[in-house]
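Hey forum,

I'm writing up a methods section and want to include a predicted complex as supplementary material. The small molecule is LWAPGFLV. I've pasted the protein sequence and the SMILES. Can someone with a working setup run it? I'll credit the forum in the acknowledgements.
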Amino acid sequence: MTQKIIKLTVRDIRFPTSLELHGSDAMHTDPDYSVAYVVIETDQGMRGYGLTFTVGRGTEIVVCAVEALSALVVGKSLEEIVSDFRGFYRLLSSDGQMRWIGPEKGVIQLATAAVLNSVWDLWARMEGKEPRKLISCIDFRYITDALTEQEALEILEKAEAGKQQRVDQMLKEGYPAYTTSCAWLGYSDQLLKQLCTDALSEGWTKFKVKVGADLEDDIRRCSLIRQMIGPNNTLMIDANQRWDVGEAITWVTKLAEYKPLWIEEPTCPDDILGHAAISKALAPLGIGVASGEQCHNRVMFKQFLQAEALQFIQIDSCRMGSVNENLAVLLMAHKFKVPVCPHAGGVGLCELVQHLILFDYISVSASLDDRMCEFVDHLHEHFISPVVIKNAHYMPPKDPGYSCEMLESSVQRYQYPQGEVWKQFKKQSLKD
Ligand SMILES: C[C@H](O)[C@@H](O)CC(=O)C(=O)O
Ligand SMILES: [Mg+2]
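Reply by user p_vandermeer:
Happy to help. Structure tokens for the complex are below, copy them as they are.
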């Protein structure tokens, strides 16, 4: 049945997470987790839901960018889009009137992700996809020196073997996860201890700690958490781009005794050679470098891989141009033998990225070695099909679609600035 997209709406939804310092790190000290939330509707009454994660005031700019892209979507049929998804991706990412404010980066790329996520959601509610069809969604422009279309197809075809076994395994055991919920930078030691104790009793074995603002604090917090989790559990540290290259090496060397598996975003997320230098310096200490949550397109990831600048790739479901670009990165990571450990958390990122990482295991890498997906325990209650975590594993989603439909009651309560929650804050601040 032809489904013509007749409407696209986008709303600015913000959660006041800064009040309790959830999500805080060395660079984002008071984040209000937010989304630009997109709904597309077809003439047959079907809907697709998409979003991109942002923080606070920036959301209104992303909303404007989605509105600017909407004219490229409304009026098209789903069949028209998916029969040449590569072309449609290019239309959005290379539109002559808007390309200058990207290309394929920044606000326009976040907006592209929100729109395309809604298209993937709509499509996913309708049918299964074969390797050839998936490959036809990827824009190979600028990456053929690292991965050709033929190589990508061969990777997917090779992974057909054993696929059903991996599906069954995932349905039974789920995909391994780690938690970042215990140790946001703004949390007190007492809260950190409490959350860590709870997480251990729930079966968590892999923990990420925010670092980078103050070395003495980092030493104290890493030592505390290492003592609590013991020598056999896994610790990761995340500096959210706080340091220069030399500073990163010196700082992380001082934290090496706590045996972190990786240092995440040690420096500017665009500094490929800087990451390579940090990787080289930290390799003898057994510490890898992870990055990706602010890596804005497949071309950046290509160069990180070519330069051996990362030992862990952190794809993000909303930073790049949706599933289309993430497929390209999963396939390149496989070719370069670098494990994918997605960034999640935020608002809806866990809901979205679970699909990508399950796809990676089932249809691309067929490996769980050194792989795990981030989990953050905030804001899932606002989703119709929230993630299900069992024994520190993501259980495969059962509902059709891309899992980012929100409860309409939540959207209305948290819509900025007219939602009840924000109106209440406004009244309060007028009183103060
Ligand atoms: C501002 C966000 O909370 C950021 O700190 C998240 C992040 O770096 C992560 O989850 O990793
Ligand atoms: Mg991070």
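Some notes you might quote in the supplement: The mean pLDDT is 97. The chain has two domains: 5-147, 154-408.
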